[in-house]
Amino acid sequence: METKQNRPLAGQVAVVAGGTRGAGRGTAVELGAAGATVYVTGRSTRHGRSAMNRPETIEETAERVTAAGGEGVALGVDHSRSEDVAALADRVLRDHGRLDVLVNDVWGGDPLTEWDTPFWRLDVAKVQQLWQQAVVTHLLTSQHLVPLMLARHRGLVVEITDGTGEDYRGSLGYDLVKTAVNRLAFAMAEELGPHGVTALAVTPGFLRSEAMLEIFGVTEATWRDGARRDPHFAASETPHFVGRAIAALAADPDIAARAGLVHTSWDLGEEYGLTDIDGRRPHWGRHIAASAS
Fold this sequence. Notes:
Helices cover about 40% and strands about 15% of the residues. The protein has helices spanning about 20-35, 60-70, 80-95, 125-145, 145-150, 170-190, 210-215, 240-250, 265-270, 285-290, and strands at about 15, 35-40, 70-75, 100-105, 155-160, 195-205, 260-265. A seven-stranded parallel beta sheet has the order 3-2-1-4-5-6-7, with helices on both faces. α2 links the parallel β2 and β3. Pfam families: adh_short.
């Protein structure tokens, strides 16, 4: 039997910008499992790949949303193009007349990130492009879609990030854009609060994304074997864990109290009593603290 408890987002409308893979895909699916209609957007479609050149597509994510119990809608959108995002906003407005949840997870920065390269040797053109791809796209998307929330004085904007901003992320370009996303959530929260809309950021821990599974040479079924290469992998989480955390936030009637902050999947997991798809409750923060002691 369908109840508010097991489908708390039934009737709600969400957009997951950059929902092709990773945390975006996991979030889209879990919003669907909670009952939402989810527009899954991005550049990787069955008609062509983005510069990431990976096989995952927005259509596949949308199908998983529907299979989970929601309604998935795949729309090809280049979030760096204002006209594309405007068309997305028009489509959501035409279909539903409102938007309840916006998740900004546009990335595409893997080909632009130079790991193990000191900042004085970075290709600044790549850093500039990374800024446009991973930060400006988020702002542009919010500019077009948040007005669908303002009219109703309610809604949630989630910036998916990497890290709380306290630790260096290993490459100046990468660190710069991920820290900026955290600040973007804070700044939007300041301006949206008086209008009844909440903005915040959420970071996963060690994410077992499709790409990370490939790097470690494992599958989700054999992921524990990855700990032989890196012991930290034993504390990793699937994209569904952060997705469940975001779905719980979207269903929280007291969400406004969390505005402007960077929330972690592991703390939210404990607060909301969540588990990952394998039944575990990973806690990256506790793992790292124990490793450092």
